[in-house]
Design goal:
single chain, about 725 residues, seven-stranded mixed β-sheet, 14 helices, binds dioxothiomolybdenum(VI) ion
Length: about 725
């Protein structure tokens, strides 16, 4: 079996040699360059745009404003949300909103001209900070992709809390965060009559195709979206953001290919963010630590309603993680004058888990109980809200193996009790979980006469290993070494596949690859004309039976075909809805905090994960480590700051938006507990991209409490919060 092995990335060598061409590296004959002009006020209307100076600048070809922009088809029939604004009106809803696009012969000419565009505003009253208007919270219209309702309730939590032996009642806050992938957002658009080709950095070529077809009111087949490599996305490349449609609009206006790459600063205003949340958690337990009630009331920030709506699903984990007869969750939104928030690695789960797993730690303290023991006493054998069984759950083994590898038993409970000279040592842990998602997907597999294999799907590889895992699955079925499988993806002309989000690329695409490969194998075996195909197998380009063999080339010649191919369309089993399908994990953190200066250093990490069957051990480990690093950033550093007066983001750059670097990261030990889920997918995998980020912030907050006795309930945990 090649599936499960540590396989080098198929695209790794091309990437380190610079041969993997990202969207921004493409060019087209006669390509012009576009630059976005953004609003400097957070609310109001545009009262006039003077482009005369800019138009007189050298090389300027066109300036798009709401006055001359093409009217787009804004019907929301498409599955993929259309993101606004798209120069369709004069209303300004946030600082940084796109108000004009300057197109010129060269990038520098476009930049120079953009600086000369003069926009006048009638400024309105802006709501810049969510916390000022919490009382105006409202129920989300769209929630959890329609999978669940904003509010749930089983039992009677408020009554069950009466007379509890231990209670936690606390508010937890998570800030706005931005994804900051290395690769900037970019689009290169080219029209040929009413056919549009777009090279762009996206997690969803199928979504981009659908959105563009809707906006320009042309058949989907007329739109080709190409994206063979993605330099990270973390969710911000899931939607098709306005710059893509604006690039296509500009290309049509100047009748030339146009390239628009947003700047690093514009990455903070043009493609969503993780919304600020304010969450109230109430837990009650009896003296044995059994949970009597859980209440999780979540508020999250969203944009002004006309730019869409996005709700952080902070409470969904509290509905299913622990055995408890009385659980209530609510979700409400608060509109501010900021752009539309979006998915960011483990959306909802990462923020919600910080609240729930911090509260569980506080409950353990109130009960004088070991935090791992408290979780084991409340281990859910079935989903307590839906009553459904889990499709698979290896969480108990994650706690045990994680605790053992971490030496959790050496932890002494009182805060501040573990020291190394003047350094305070803290140990904390948290549970992790993330749902197993899957959508319909298709793939083509073709075997050539020489035994080489081609696999094709209109999916995308965010750097997570999709090229590699697709090759592994086909190689196993068709009996060839993985080197003989060539994978092509990132082109909307290939068989369609869903967004690479929600950790579901493997779960969606690999079953299609496997199905198509099965069909190719069966067709090939049939071409031999031999009966008893059950005894036949494929071995590196040769069909072998117990006492005979035939090369696949000879089998194809016999059938009169140059190659054998099949396309498979697969979708989740209807039985899947009868189960709660989740991946799980246990995170163990050690922090070292200077007793006087309160500098915080993560010094050790063990994460044990049940992510179902692992397809590629090497890329899985990289994903797990990457997810933990992402969580360390969330816990200790990341925070987008908004100026309360002007509603502008003041740290819209990666110098002042802090993220971890290598020196901030300890040796990370990852343990994989395989608990295959064959209900979600025949391959048994559960998805891995977001799970390792969940639980990191709480594990660190809990470790910080253990080191210092200070409970920090607002992220990020900076040293100033430990100096009070
Ligand atoms: Mo992920 S936040 O679903 O791209």
């Amino acid at each position: 079996m090649i599936v499960g092995q540590s396989i080098d990335r198929q695209d790794g060598r091309r990437k380190v040699l610079g041969q993997a061409k990202y969207a921004a590296e493409a060019s087209a004959d006669g390509m012009a360059h576009a630059i976005l002009v953004q609003s400097t006020v957070a609310a109001g209307t545009i009262s006039g745009i003077d482009t005369s100076k800019a138009r007189a600048m050298p090389g300027v070809l066109e300036i798009l404003t709401p006055d001359n922009a093409d009217k787009l088809n804004l019907k929301q029939g498409a599955r993929q949300p259309v993101t606004f604004p798209l120069l369709q009106g004069n209303e300004v809803l946030y600082s940084g909103q796109h108000v004009a696009v300057v197109v010129a012969e060269t990038l520098q000419q476009a930049q120079a001209a953009a600086a000369k565009v003069s926009v006048r505003y009638r400024a309105g009253e802006a709501v810049t900070i969510m916390d000022a208007v919490l009382s105006q919270a409202y129920e989300p219209k769209k929630f959890d992709n329609g999978r669940s309702k904003p509010d749930t309730k089983v039992g009677d939590p408020d009554a069950a809390m009466q007379g509890a032996a231990a209670m936690v009642d606390a508010t937890y806050i998570t800030p706005i965060e931005h994804h900051n992938p290395m690769e900037l957002h970019v689009a290169i658009a080219q029209w040929n009559g009413d056919r549009l080709t777009v090279r762009t950095a996206t997690q969803a070529i199928s979504g981009a195709q659908e959105t563009l077809a809707t906006l320009f009111d042309i058949p989907k087949e007329n739109v080709t979206v190409i994206c063979p490599f993605v330099g990270g996305g973390f969710g911000c490349k899931g939607n098709t953001w306005p710059h893509v449609a604006l690039t296509a609009m500009a290309a049509r206006k100047v009748n030339r290919p146009v390239k628009l790459e947003v700047t690093r600063q514009q990455m903070f205003t043009s493609n969503g963010y993780r919304a600020r949340t304010v969450q109230k958690l109430k837990l009650a337990a009896d003296s044995d630590g059994k949970l009597l009630a859980i209440r999780h009331d979540g508020l999250s920030q969203t944009s002004q309603p006309s730019t869409g709506e996005f709700a952080e699903t902070v409470g969904v984990e509290s509905r299913m993680l622990y055995a408890c007869a009385n659980i209530a969750t609510t979700h409400r939104l608060v509109s501010v004058n900021q752009g539309l928030p979006t998915f960011m690695r483990a959306p909802g789960e990462a923020s919600g888990n910080f609240a729930l797993e911090s509260a569980m730690d506080e409950l353990a303290v109130a009960l004088s109980m070991d935090p791992v023991e408290l979780r084991l006493r409340n281990y859910a054998e079935f989903d307590p809200t839906s009553g459904r069984p889990f499709a698979s759950k290896g969480l108990r083994a994650c706690y045990r193996q994680g605790a053992e590898a971490f030496n959790w038993s050496r932890r002494t409970p009182p805060p501040g009790s573990m020291r190394d000279g003047r350094v305070l040592i803290g140990m904390g842990m948290a549970t992790s979980t993330y749902p197993t998602n899957r959508m319909a997907a298709s793939a083509l597999v073709r075997m050539m006469a020489n035994g080489d294999v081609l696999v094709r799907s209109g999916t995308q590889d965010l750097g997570t290993g999709t090229y590699t895992t697709m090759a592994q699955v086909a190689a196993d079925v068709l009996g060839v070494p993985v080197e003989r499988v060539r994978v092509e993806l990132g082109d909307s002309r290939f068989p369609p596949a869903p967004v690479s989000g929600g950790s579901m690329t493997s779960a969606s695409v690999l079953p299609a690859v496997q199905q198509a490969a099965f069909q190719v194998r069966d067709k090939l075996l049939a071409l031999t004309g031999w009966n008893a195909s059950g005894d036949l197998r494929l071995d590196n380009g040769v069909v072998r039976g117990p006492d005979r063999q035939m090369s696949v080339g000879d089998a194809m010649a016999r059938g009169g075909v140059p190659s054998v191919e099949a396309t498979a369309n697969t979708k989740p089993s209807p039985d899947a809805d009868k189960y709660t399908r989740h991946a799980f994990g246990a995170q163990f953190a050690e922090v070292r905090i200077d007793a006087d200066l309160r500098t915080i250093k993560v010094s050790r990490w063990v994460g044990a994960f049940d992510c179902g069957k692992v397809i590629s051990a090497k890329t899985a480990r990289s994903q797990l480590i990457g997810g933990i690093v992402f969580g360390i950033g969330m816990a200790l550093m990341e925070e987008t700051r908004v100026d309360p007066e002007f509603g502008r983001i003041v740290n819209a750059n990666i110098a002042e938006y802090h993220m971890p670097v290598n020196a901030d990261i300890p040796d990370i030990q990852t343990i994989v507990v395989e608990s295959p889920d064959t209900i979600s997918t025949p391959l048994g995998l559960k998805g891995i991209g977001e799970l390792p980020t969940v639980g990191v912030a709480a594990a660190i907050a809990n470790a910080v409490w253990h080191a210092t006795g200070t409970r920090v309930r607002e992220l990020p945990i900076r040293l100033d919060k430990l100096l009070v």
